Amino acid sequence: MADSASPAVTQALDVLRLLSTRPEPVTATSIARDLGLPRSTTYKLLGILIDEGFVQHLPEDRRYGLGVAAFEVGSAYSRQAGLARLSRPALARLVDEIGYTAHLAVLHGADVFYVLEERAPGRPVLVTHVGVRLPAHLTASGLAMLAELPSAQVRALYPGPHAFVHRHTPGVGCLSELRAELTRVRSRGYARESETVTPECASVAASVVDHRGYPVAALALTYPMTGCPLADCSRTSTDAAPADGPDVGALATGVRAAAAEVTRRIRGVRRDPVTRS
To answer: Half-sphere exposure of 126 toward its Cβ, with a 13 Å CA cutoff?
Structure first.
């Protein structure tokens, strides 16, 4: 077993790896023997993993197998990997046509997780590179996906003021503000943020949905704030920026088209907004 600053975590992972290699559930005695663990430690680890849903106990057989949570993690990995492959061509074309860096992100609880990046030539490295997690309500990608969720699910993800953290320029700060912003996202057909993630940068994003209309990802473009009209929330999606800044309406159109292409590729169906209440 590899050395680790957190041996209990390593031991728990060893248990899961062992169970994943077995064609059927096994006994605790077998697990302890194969991993060289004390029986007391083995039962303690199994108890924790059962509580978290990663292991299931079959009391009649006195055996242990992988639980639903382990299946969900494995399924999420497969789903995200396949989604990234399907999304890459659309993301690459979007960057080629518009010239700003684009990302693909998925929703993980109240966070977004970035799984794909297409960096435009000459553009700076952004914080939203692959593998980074950020609070969903601060990002355009997160807002685009939250807008597709039922209101009860959004409320569960944001149970109180403590859930609304900030990085730079404050974004939404409470559930009522979030609901109002999500209503605007649904009305516009895309989400936007201004300097809540990175100073002097803004983003626009659109969601990708599956066959149930559930948000599985979002595509986003990030661009410099120079002359950007996003600071004026009274503007509409058709407003263009001054000559020294990007045409945000054109960016939003490009992002929506790319997201729609990926949605078609996964056979997704976008729901009517009224069904999300």
So the answer is: 34
